[in-house]
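User: I'm curious what two different proteins look like when written out as structure tokens. Can you demonstrate?

Assistant: Sure. I'll show them one after the other, since each token string lines up with its own sequence. Here's the first protein:
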Amino acid sequence: MGQFLKNFRGRALAAATLLPAAWGTAIEVQPWFGDVYEFHFLQSYSYSWFNSVENSRPHYHNFFQCNLLYSGLEFASSPVWDIDGDIQFADTTVTPFNFRTMAMQIRYLWLDDIIGDPISFATGVSGRLTATSSLKDVSCPSHGNVDLELNFALGKEFDAADTWRFRAWMFGAVGHANRGAPWVRAIASVEMNRDDIHKWAVYATGINGYGRRTHINVNHFFGYAKYREKTIDLGIRYGYGIGVWGTLRIDYLYRVLAKTAPENVNTFIVSWLLPFSI
């Protein structure tokens, strides 16, 4: 019974701290799934701003802001299969409030350290559809109207009593749109948990595109598929568990590296994750 409770609480907390990838792509990325037949509803709002775009021609030095609403739903159909999707709406300096993008993902869990494996390891495939109007917005991270990715995630938890105290994990993906060149992206995170109530994380997320273009015309932009973009964002997060009502979280991210992309981007995210069954 003690091992069962440990596994249950570990899975519940894993589901309650799923990390959206920074700045606009937020399908699940951690190598831990939720409880079987339980849904996890994630609702978030993010506000980002920047004042310049690196390698823009002509030079872009104006205040740009982005308001993003995100809704996601994740479902573990078995201990090893997980399906999730999201839909996003955005209001930015250049585009009024409207649909931006939606995605679906399916993943398989090969190893699970919660039940005794040395690490947790999952692989998956995802597809994302982006509105043509949003591709004209330099703040939208999509590459084309259709973005496809193959991904993997691995991690390790370090337990204290009947729950985990520390854990570290990483995520990697390679993608290609319906046009242009491929890209790779990655996330790495270190997290701490206290009594399944207070949760902290420090993480980094980055992307590297392999397109030929190195200069961006912000006024004639149509997605990052053909650009040699490179970005790294550093983030911190605090989450507070409120029992059966889920988890509230606050994130802050700052862009420390930008090549052929918006630079010095500041992002605040407020999110709420609710597990439920029907």
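Here's a second, unrelated protein for contrast:
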Amino acid sequence: MRSRKPFLIFWPQYFDLKRSRSNGRRIPRKFAVEKVNLEEIANAAKKLGYDAEIERNYKYSRTWWDDPGRVLINAKGKKKNKVLIEVAKEIRKSNIKA
């Protein structure tokens, strides 16, 4: 098993507008998005200059029946909550342009 030391784990459920905080959303509603996939999270992180890696075989423990997958992001020492909000803003910005 490899070390995940510099990486932070980001699940798509963290960004889901339809979830409550108790059901897994980790960011304020104003930054959340309705539908987000692993590629959008990874692309947003890469646009912000972070290294991102998709792992498809893992399931979020609170909602194990949902689609599998998570994104590992090398935050370069930044706090997870700050990176979450940065990535969420970048996702919203790219969804508006699309």
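A detail about the second structure: The chain has a mean pLDDT of 88.
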